[in-house]
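Please decode residue identities from the backbone states below.
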């Protein structure tokens, strides 16, 4: 498998990951008795799509997704910006979770409703740094890969 190095390819993967996350979130919202099996049927493929795309994205964003000891100053700045943006996104997702929790409190089986939504939003939040980097990073310079064999 080749790692995607163009902005267009990374953005396609980011969109696929977001679609997968939204399907999982919709499945978590529908996770109640009349629509239980439909919701589970949505969540399985959605989870495969979002986790698979996010895993490929983590490879595609390259070094800015690495540990601090391996990065130069520019890459550290990119990584820190991605984590700051992801923190803001996670805060927004937790507000959504809070509003959903207030709704679910009046429903029967509110614990399972809230826990499934929290899990879906948590998984989405963990992929936000890679999604941010995939969307913002420019194309790699082809000269950086001259003489390097893929593999």
């Amino acid at each position: 498998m080749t790692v995607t190095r163009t902005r267009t390819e990374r953005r396609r993967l980011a969109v696929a990951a977001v679609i997968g996350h939204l399907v999982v979130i919709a499945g978590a919202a529908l996770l109640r008795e009349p629509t239980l099996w439909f919701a589970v049927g949505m969540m399985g493929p959605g989870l495969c799509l979002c986790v698979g795309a996010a895993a490929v994205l983590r490879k595609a964003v390259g070094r800015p997704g690495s540990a601090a000891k391996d990065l130069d100053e520019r890459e550290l700045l990119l990584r820190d910006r991605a984590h700051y943006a992801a923190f803001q996104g996670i805060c927004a997702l937790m507000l959504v979770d809070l509003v959903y929790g207030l709704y679910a409190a009046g429903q029967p089986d509110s614990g399972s409703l809230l826990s499934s939504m929290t899990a879906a939003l948590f998984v989405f939040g963990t992929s936000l740094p890679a999604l941010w980097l995939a969307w913002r990073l420019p194309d790699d310079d082809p000269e950086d890969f001259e003489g390097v064999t893929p593999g």
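Observation: The helical segments are 7-29, 36-60, 73-104, 110-126, 128-136.
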